[in-house]
């Protein structure tokens, strides 16, 4: 499943080609996604202009300015989720669609925003006018690279929590984007045992953990900018970044820091790998 760094890299990759572009055509080849494609998508998009792309957690937000024939709602926002296997690429007019290319948004410049999703677990839908009232967004915690996410925030939310710190960190109500890979790596960087109760971790250690989350996600985004294939002409598919992972997927191997054998456990129904020598 695309994680936050993959979605952020997608946003950065497609934005230069479609921002501030007029939409001239919309092609929906397969409307039956996880959420059915809105019936009014074409009517509201054709003739409108695309604003500056944003991201909230793993959702892409695409502002639509002058939304088609809806005079009472001149602006709107598309909410796009890539699901388990989806990708958004830039094609050009004349590029033939591939199997599982379900939606095309064609712009006056000749570039096409093309959605590919073999499993059809993703969706494109209208976001509520008031983001705080959209049930898909309202419960989300702070962005991990924002100032709102820090050790004080983690420490405050964790008081009296008996849940292990790793599933606590992976809770989107606590912070968005700390998926299984990145939570495991951040806990290793901070030297915290993933089994430790969230409520029994000090403020100083949460300061270190918040910094580690920021560092591992920032590194993943930077790496994605150099290793992900070109977003133009649909060449290749976005995938996980080629990072040198310290613990994730390395159970049974020696720790790169202390040499101890890495252990694999299950927390919150998710596999987790940690170093019993470095993490306490």
Task: Provide keyphrases for this structure.
280 residues; 5-stranded antiparallel sheet; elongated
Overall description:
It is a single chain. Strands 2, 3, 4, 5 and 9 form a 5-stranded antiparallel beta sheet that branches. With 280 residues, the chain is α+β, with helices and mostly antiparallel strands. The two termini are 30 Å apart. The mean pLDDT is 91. It contains 6 helices and 11 strands. A hairpin with a 2-residue loop joins β3 and β4.
Task: Compose a concise summary of this entry.
This protein has 280 residues and is of the alpha+beta class. The chain contains six helices and eleven strands.
SSE blueprint and pairings:
Blueprint: H1 4-18, E1 23-28, H2 41-45, E2 49-50, E3 54-56, E4 59-65, E5 75-81, E6 87-92, E7 101-107, E8 111-116, E9 123-126, H3 151-158, H4 165-169, H5 180-190, H6 203-227, E10 263-267, E11 270-274
Antiparallel strand pairs: 1-7, 2-4, 3-4, 4-5, 5-9, 6-8, 7-8, 10-11
Helix pairs in contact: 1-6, 3-6, 5-6
Give the class from helix and strand content and strand pairing: alpha+beta
User: What is the average of the pLDDT values?
Assistant: 91
Uncertain runs are none
Query: How much helical structure, as a percent, in the residues?
Result: 10-25%
What's the helix count?
6
Largest sheet composition: 5 strands, antiparallel
Task: Estimate the strand proportion.
Answer: 15-25%
User: Could you say which overall geometry the principal axes of the C-alpha atoms support?
Assistant: elongated
Q: How many DSSP-defined strands?
A: 11
Listing every helix as H and every strand as E from the N terminus to the C terminus, the arrangement reads HEHEEEEEEEEHHHHEE
As a whole number of angstroms, the C-alpha radius of gyration is: 21 Å
Q: Give the termini distance in whole angstroms.
A: 30 Å
């Amino acid at each position: 499943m695309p994680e936050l760094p993959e979605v952020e890299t997608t946003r950065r990759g497609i934005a230069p080609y479609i921002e501030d572009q007029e939409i001239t055509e919309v092609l929906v080849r397969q409307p039956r996604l996880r959420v059915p494609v809105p019936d009014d998508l074409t009517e509201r998009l054709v003739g409108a202009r695309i604003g500056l792309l944003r991201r909230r957690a793993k959702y892409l937000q695409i502002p639509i300015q002058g939304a088609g024939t809806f005079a009472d709602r001149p602006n709107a926002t598309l909410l796009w989720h890539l699901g388990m296997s989806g990708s958004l690429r830039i094609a050009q007019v004349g590029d033939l669609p591939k199997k599982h290319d379900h939606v095309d948004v064609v712009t006056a410049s000749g570039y096409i925003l093309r959605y590919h999703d073999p499993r059809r677990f993703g969706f494109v839908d209208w976001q509520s006018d008031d983001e705080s009232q959209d049930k898909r967004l309202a419960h989300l915690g702070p962005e991990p690279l924002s100032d709102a996410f820090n050790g004080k925030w983690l420490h405050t939310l964790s008081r009296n929590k008996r849940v292990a710190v790793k599933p606590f960190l992976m809770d989107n109500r606590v912070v968005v984007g700390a998926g299984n890979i990145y939570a495991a790596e951040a806990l290793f960087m901070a030297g915290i045992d993933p089994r430790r109760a969230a409520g029994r971790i000090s403020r100083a250690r949460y300061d270190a953990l918040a910094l580690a989350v920021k560092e591992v996600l920032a590194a993943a985004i930077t790496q994605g900018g150099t290793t992900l294939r070109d977003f133009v002409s649909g060449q290749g598919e976005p995938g996980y970044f080629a990072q040198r992972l310290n613990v994730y997927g390395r159970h049974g191997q020696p720790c790169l820091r202390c040499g101890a054998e890495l252990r694999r456990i299950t927390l919150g129904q998710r596999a987790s790998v940690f170093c019993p020598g470095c993490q306490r």
